Each structure stands twice: as C-alpha cells, then as structure tokens.
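Thread: quick sanity check before group meeting

JM: Hey all, I'm pulling together slides for Thursday and realized we never actually wrote out the predicted structure for the chain we discussed last week. Dropping the sequence here so it's in one place. If anyone has concerns about the input, flag it before I start.
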Amino acid sequence: MSGKTREQIIHEIETHIANIGGNFQEWFLSVSDKPKNALFNVHGLRSSGDAWIARKAKDDLQAWDVEEYFRTVRKTRGARGETSLDHIYVYAYRMKPHTKP
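JM (edit): ok, ran it. Output follows.
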C-alpha cells in the first residue's frame, strides 16, 4: 500500500475532524511508525467510543509536514517528536479526560 501526499492527508484529516465535530484544539496529532500502538497503548484510547484517524504518508518528510501544518496552522495539540525514517504514519484523536494527553 503506497502512502498519500501531504495534501491528501491534510484534506482527509480536516474532513474527518469536521464530520466528528469539535474544534482543532480538542485534537492531538502526531507521527509514528506504529499508530495503533501509539493511540491505544501510549495515549489510552478505548477501542470503542473514541474518535481517531491514521494515514500513511509517502515518506517521513511528508508526514512531518502534515504534523507541522496542524500544530502551527490548525493549532492541534502535539509536540514535534524525534524524526525517524520509519515515522510515516500521521495519526490524530479527539482528546478526552481518559486520554494522555
């Protein structure tokens, strides 16, 4: 499965957030090599009832560009992590009291 471009991922995540509701500041977005592990084991999402999305980028640079766009333009939560060639998945979730953060 080939990855998506920066523009495709931004569009899909913006559409997802618009459909779920809430403002961008209620969402956390980051980049990982294992998005489901990050979502469910690191951030504590529940398998049902929590809103999330993950997309595979063409490469790590496109993934980090998406992360920077959402962090600086849309003001989602999330901090720039360590860059890695394996980190090609962009993920986002709507924060709730039980998620970290």
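AS: nice. Residues 6-94 form one domain. DSSP finds three helices and three strands in the chain.
JM: adding both to the slides.
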